[in-house]
Design a protein that fits this description.
The protein is α/β, with parallel strands linked by helices and 232 residues long. It has six helices and eleven strands. Helix content is 30%, strand content 24%. It has a seven-stranded mixed beta sheet with strand order 5-4-1-6-10-7-11, sandwiched between helices. Strands 2-3 form a two-stranded antiparallel sheet. Strands 8-9 form a two-stranded antiparallel sheet.
């Protein structure tokens, strides 16, 4: 099975300028994504898609493919699906699977990646696997819409008065892994394909870095995550 890992890492970011090269535990965020792909036993090719020279230079240090991203795919409204389509078009190869590894969700391991690909090898009727975490504190039963007079309108009809521990968990995409069969991706032009399964991860390590607050949280969690994950 041929597996393409795509790491999308543009230079611009309004929420946290230069976020993809900010150092977490002594390494740029993009390096954490690259090393996750490199350590997996399944990845056939790693492509770093970027418009930024500094990010490109990091990729070249790892001797992976670095693909210059055109300007129209590098602004705030850029679509990651179009970015991955751009990557695919540059290679005359038939990849069975595409794995998207976003640098902004660094608390993951190659072991998770191997497990996800194992699932896709085993479950041939499934087109994609998305990593998620169970959520109880941030639950739709605790969310509201507001009318013009600030009147609270429950987002969902049930659960407003149920104790947190009695709520049925819902699941939130944590951004760590999107693994999709290439045929399904090209046909549906989405990573959220119709036939998909969840890969459930530990909510204690939920980090998706878009702001300085997110990055500070990642710094606080990293060492404890590493100790628990690698048992040292």
């Amino acid at each position: 099975m041929k597996v393409l890992a795509v790491i999308p890492a543009r230079g611009g970011s309004k929420g946290l300028p230069g976020k993809n090269i900010k150092e977490l535990a002594g390494k740029p965020l993009v390096s954490h994504a690259i090393e996750c792909a490199m350590q997996s036993k399944y990845i056939s090719k790693i492509v770093l898609s970027t418009d930024d020279k500094n990010i490109a230079d990091i990729g070249k240090q790892y001797d992976i493919d670095v693909l210059e991203r055109p300007d129209y795919l590098a602004d705030d409204n850029s679509n990651v699906v179009e970015t991955v389509e751009h990557v695919i078009k540059q290679y005359n190869e038939d990849f069975d699977l595409i794995v998207l590894l976003q640098p902004t969700s660094p608390l993951r391991t190659y072991l998770d990646l191997n497990n996800i690909i194992d699932l896709l090898i085993d479950k041939t009727d499934i087109d994609g696997i998305i990593s998620v975490v169970p959520m109880q504190d941030l639950h739709p039963a605790r969310m509201y819409n507001l009318r013009e007079n600030d009147q609270l309108i429950p987002l969902i009809d049930t659960g407003e008065n149920i104790r947190r521990q009695d709520l049925k968990p819902v699941y939130y995409r944590n951004g760590c892994f999107y693994a999709i069969r290439t045929k399904a991706f090209l046909a549906q032009k989405s990573f959220m394909v119709n036939k998909k399964l969840a890969y459930i991860m530990n909510p204690d390590w939920l980090v998706n870095i878009d702001t300085i607050r997110d990055f500070k949280l990642a710094e606080l969690l990293y060492e404890d995550w590493k100790k628990e994950t690698f048992n040292y």
